[in-house]
Amino acid sequence: MAAQNDLSGIAAMIGVGHTDWPADHARVRAGDKPHDSYGYAAAAFNAALADAAISRQDIDGLIVGPTIANERMGELLGLDVRWGGQADAMTAVLEAVAAIRAGYCEVVALVYGNDQRSAAVKYGGPDAMGGNAFLSYVYHAPWGFTSQGALYAMMARRYLHERGMTEAELGEVAVAQRLAASRNPNALMREPITIEDYLASRFICEPLHLFDYCLINDGGVVLLVAEAEKARQISRKPVSIKGVGRFDLNKGATSLEPRLTDYYHSAQSKVADQVFEMAGLGPRDMDALQIYDSFSLHVPLALEGYGYCRPGEAGRFLTEHGISLDKGLPVNTSGGHLSETYMQGWNHQIEAVRQVRNEAGDRQVPQCRHVHYSSDVAGKAISIIYGAP
Amino acid sequence: MADAQPVLSLYDEPFWAAMAEGRLELQSCASCARFRYPPAPVCPDCLSMDYAWTPVSGRGEILSWVIFHRQYFDDFPPPYNAIAVRLEEGPILVSNLMGIMPVGNWIGEPVQLTCRQHEGRRQHAFEWAGAGAEGA
Ligand SMILES: [Zn+2]
Q1: For residue A77, how far is its CA from the centre of ligand 1 (angstroms)?
Q2: Which domains does chain A show, CATH number per domain?
Q3: What does R_g of chain B's alpha carbons equal in angstroms?
Q4: B24 and B77 share a domain?
Q5: Within a domain: residue B2?
Q6: B64 at the A interface (CB within 8 A)?
Q7: Is the minimum CB–CB distance between B66 and chain A shorter than 8 Å?
Q8: Domain shared by B75 and B27, yes or no
Q9: ipTM of the predicted structure?
Q10: Shared domain check, B122 and B88
């Protein structure tokens, strides 16, 4: 395990780029299709190169997101590379760090594009994942149990019951993140909401309301990760990757066992030990959190799982301590998946980088030195700690 | 839209064959006796690949429940419920609660297996077996 400490600070994020989410969303809703997944990725790639002020020739590694093919993406971007891969946002960052540590490459482009809205990708119903897969939101379809949201609704019902958390306490997540989005020109949903709005909103899969669900929209994100010394040479504003960690809970996944009996807490607490030790930091050193939020429930789970509060205290933490830009520990300062854009964890990395760079405008967290990113998608607990170099 | 269809791997077929005759049978490991669900080629505890299809008691308790308010399938018009049931034998099943519903909290309520006709197939469902279930 000690060798993992060698990963701290060996790589840095040197550039971030993304598409114009609100403009593209407006076009898609009007029936237009601005790009396919590759086109969104390409637009984000150009934006990331401009942000980093590096040349394409500096890039010698390519990791693409789950929705696009590596070879085709590299062909489109004119990239021949020393090393390549395919991964979701958080795994892509971890793989880039590992590849840099191994010496496979020095500057890695992490490339994501998704036309999920205009392509009408289904996350529930007969066509979810082709309708025939050992995934918990597909397997139980004969009983009408479908969609990622239903998994989190089932989890939320038991979690709220066991922890004594109220619906209104959970609603703080959607309200706080909408406040953040109201200060973010890149966010799709910028109209502030109140707890009363939340409670009055319709149920999709009860106990979860509409506002507990992520958005579905098109777009692209590109992140550029470089070896730390190389980053100092070619970047004006590198953001250091101080710690990474991962633990997967696979046992009983389809039957919902780890969701309903553990809430992924055991995985998150293992990752907490790993990532905080690697970074030489603790929860109290974090100035902001970015939490993968396909559903609001991820936020209290991570607050408890990573030790920001004790198990059973997340409800009070949400309301009394606070998770908004105005009160407490700011969480999902861009609005996250609920209110900014559903870029499947990729937009959270951009926000972490911007906060550490002090480039977040009206939503800037004062003296933001360290940002913790966490995801617990389907029992894979992953963390990244970003900080000033 | 379309109807909800079962996932049919090689190991699911005996499950649905028994269900068609009104029986809920799960695989029990020939080596360590652990019950498992969904059906699988190997025991996740001891890695034995030997198993027997074994009837279960049908007794369980509700771990959690949801109410769907959005329509995803033609054959499931909302609102309808789905429950996660911990069987006495160990595995968790996702199913539907039929008949009389508990008032308020459902978590921890005892349930008993039943079988129902759904569109073109028979499948498991559960009925509330707690105090008050007989009342209404
Ligand atoms: Zn066994």
Answers
A1: 50
A2: 2-120+216-234 (3.40.47.10), 154-212+242-389 (3.40.47.10)
A3: 16
A4: no
A5: no
A6: yes
A7: yes
A8: no
A9: 0.97
A10: yes
Instruction: State which residue of chain A sits closest to B5, comparing Cα positions.
Output: A142
Q: What residues of B are in contact with residue A158 (Cβ under 8 Å)? A: 63-64, 107
Question: What is the model's pLDDT at position A5?
Answer: 63
Distance in angstroms (rounded) separating the CA atoms of residues A54 and A305: 38
B90 CA to centre of ligand 1 in angstroms: 13
Question: B39: CA distance to ligand 1 center in Å?
Answer: 13
Coil, helix or strand at residue A49: helix
Indicate the pLDDT class of residue B135, thresholds 50, 70 and 90: low
**Average pLDDT value for residue range B109-134:** 93
The reply to whether B3 falls in a domain is: no
Among chain B residues, the shortest Cα distance to A141 is held by B4
| Cβ–Cβ < 8 Å for A307, A389 | no
Please check whether residue A138 touches B, CB under 8 A: yes
| Predicted model pTM | 0.96
Same domain, B63 and B107: yes
Residue A312, φ and ψ in degrees, nearest 5: 100, -10
Shared domain check, B46 and B67 = no
Give residue for tokens 């809205």. Answer: A117
Q: Does A164 touch chain B (CB under 8 A)?
A: no
Are B66 and B123 found together in one domain? yes
Extract the residue ranges of chain A whose pLDDT is less than 70.
1-5, 129-134
Output the pLDDT for position A132.
Answer: 63
Q: Hey, how many other C-beta atoms are within 10 angstroms of the C-beta on A145?
A: 31
Cβ neighbors of B85 (< 8 A, separation 6 or more) are B60, B61, B62, B63, B92, B93, B94, B95, B111, B126
Query: What average pLDDT score do residues B1-23 get?
Result: 92
Question: Which of A138, A255, A260 is closest, CB to CB, to B91?
Answer: A255
Q: Quick check: B7 and A146 CB within 8 A?
A: no
Range of the domain at B41: 8-55
Q: What's the number of domains chain B is made of?
A: 2
